Amino acid sequence: MLGPVILAASRSDRMRRFVSAAPGTKQVVARFIAGENVDQVVPVVEDAVARGLEVTLDVVGEDITTREQAAAARDAYLELVERLAGLGFGPRVEMSVKLSMFGQSLDGGHELALANVRPVVEAAAAIGTTVTLDAEDHTTLDSMFAIHEELRKDFPDTGCVIQAYLFRTEQDARRLAADGSRVRLVKGAYKEPASVAVQDRAEIDKAYVRILRILMEGEGYPMIGSHDPRLIAIGQELARGAGRKLDEYEFQMLYGIRRDEQLRLAAEGHRMRVYTAYGTDWYGYFMRRLAEKPANLLFFLRSMITKN
Fold it and tell me: Is 148 helix (H, G, I), strand (E, B) or coil?
């Protein structure tokens, strides 16, 4: 299986340098990354909204090593909020954050990440939108959920992400569904050991359906993070079975993947949100996209060969 190999490479500085220098990289990165800065991503957002889509914006970057970098990540999101304020999109354009960017792994990282992310969540609420806390590897989740719970005391719309391949997730889903949270369910895109995560793809899909049922039958707002046609159809069926209206859940897909399907779902009246990443520190995000689907890796390799 190439996926675990690629995920391991996502942590390698040597592979980072190799991939960054490869002739075909820029072309493929542009498929998944909407731009390098706010000025480049705003037209992408405006176009998506004009087509009936919604957006969640991610300033890429993780594994920071200093408090100064954590503060810079906070400031990058505050700059984004400032630009969104003048566009009037409200909840149609929200933000996704990785707490590792805000200093979670540093000494005193839990308190540091909370201190850095809070002003971003506050600023988002002031312009009528919100923030979703992305899930990262399993060692970070207790901290992420605690920060999520703390933020929701003042900003109840703050969302979080859960990952179907982790054994703990059904229990997390039951707690969150009963709590009325906004919860995005994804399969999971980090290299996790067999002691904490399902390894078989078919079993991950089964877990995804079980967890999605919990969310649909709960009191929260489910966000279906998947490009899989079967899971999308099952999500629609579960929503109907739970008596949910079209505005009581949403689909989410990545920028650059299945654009026609995104537009189809939006045209049918579904809330369809596009996870749109931008920034210069794209390597970790990019490698996880390659690991998720062999076709992405083949596209990258073909581009490299074509450019040589």
Answer: helix
The amino acid occupying position 170 is E
Q: Which residues are known catalytic residues?
A: 134, 184
pTM for the predicted model, two decimal places = 0.87
Among candidate residues 172, 245, 276, the one with its CA nearest the CA of residue 215 = 172
Q: Are the C-beta atoms of residues 179 and 145 closer than 8 Å to each other?
A: no
> Distance between CA 111 and CA 214 in Å, rounded?
31
φ, ψ of residue 131 to 5 degrees: the values are: -130, 145
Q: How far apart are CA 207 and CA 204, in angstroms?
A: 5
From the list 111, 129, 122, 114, the residue with the least C-alpha distance to 45 is 129
Is residue 5 packed enough to be buried (19+ CB in 10 Å), middle (13-18) or exposed (0-12)? Answer: exposed
Question: Cα–Cα distances in Å, from 94 out to 23, 60, 130, 258?
Answer: 34, 15, 5, 21
Work out the number of other CB atoms within 10 angstroms of the CB of residue 168: 14
User: Does residue 304 register a pLDDT over 50?
Assistant: no
pLDDT above 70 for 23: no
| Nearest alpha-carbon partner for 281 in 80, 101, 61, 134 | 61
Give the torsion through C-alpha atoms of 121, 124, 125, 128, to 10 deg.
Answer: -160
Instruction: Tell me the pLDDT of the chain averaged across its residues.
Output: 89
Q: Give the H or E element holding residue 126.
A: helix 109-126
By the 8 A CB rule, do 177 and 219 touch? yes
What is the CA 89 to chain-centroid distance, rounded? 20
Angle between helix 141-152 and 109-126 (nearest 10): 40
3-state secondary structure of 308: coil
